[in-house]
């Protein structure tokens, strides 16, 4: 009988196992990449909304900071993809004529939070500088 050429069953199964591992790893990598891209996009939206609100809060006179609303005054339509979200503003009691204004956005039931704090100093000047 002539010697037959080809792969044995064990070799074919080993090749299929290696192929399955490569495909599974590649799929897991793409799923993780998609999750990270979504998180990055959400973070960008949150920081854009915070930046818009910072510009508004920067122009409020120093004496009126604590009496201003505790939610974002600027348009939060940009945060639409994060619904439900909470956008809040807190003003720490002044220390040495400095008030710390903290702006935060929470989404995914509070699992994700981005916040920025700015310091406002009583310079005695206008609200612009």
Helix count from the secondary structure assignment: 1
First and last CA, distance: 97 Å
The 3D shape can be described as rod-shaped
- SSE arrangement, N to C: HEEE
Helix content: 25-40%
Overall number of structural domains: 1
Low-confidence stretches: none
Please outline the major beta sheet: 3 strands, antiparallel
Counting helices, strands and paired strands, the structural category is: alpha+beta
Reconstruct the topology from this structure.
Elements: H1 9-58, E1 85-91, E2 98-107, E3 112-121
Antiparallel strand pairs: 1-2, 2-3
Describe this structure in words.
The N and C termini lie far apart (97 Å). The model has no long low-confidence stretch (mean pLDDT 92). The chain has 129 residues and is of the alpha+beta class. A three-stranded antiparallel β-sheet has the order 1-2-3, covered by helices on one side. The protein is built from one helix and three strands.
Give me a quick take on this structure:
This protein is α+β, with helices and mostly antiparallel strands and 129 residues long. The chain is built from one helix and three strands, in the order H-E-E-E.
Task: Based on the model shown, name its key terms.
129 residues; alpha+beta; three-stranded antiparallel beta sheet; 1 helix; 3 strands; rod-shaped
């Amino acid at each position: 009988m002539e010697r037959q050429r080809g792969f044995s069953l064990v070799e074919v199964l080993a090749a299929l196992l290696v192929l399955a591992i490569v495909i599974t790893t590649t799929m897991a990598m793409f799923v993780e990449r998609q999750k990270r891209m979504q998180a990055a996009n959400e973070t960008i939206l949150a920081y854009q909304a915070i930046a818009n609100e910072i510009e508004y809060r920067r122009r409020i006179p120093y004496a009126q900071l604590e009496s201003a609303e505790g939610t974002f005054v600027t348009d939060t339509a940009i945060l639409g993809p994060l619904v439900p979200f909470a956008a809040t503003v807190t003003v720490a009691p002044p220390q040495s004529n400095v008030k710390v204004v903290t702006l935060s956005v929470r989404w995914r039931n509070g699992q994700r939070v981005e916040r920025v704090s700015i310091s406002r100093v009583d310079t005695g000047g206008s609200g612009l500088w």
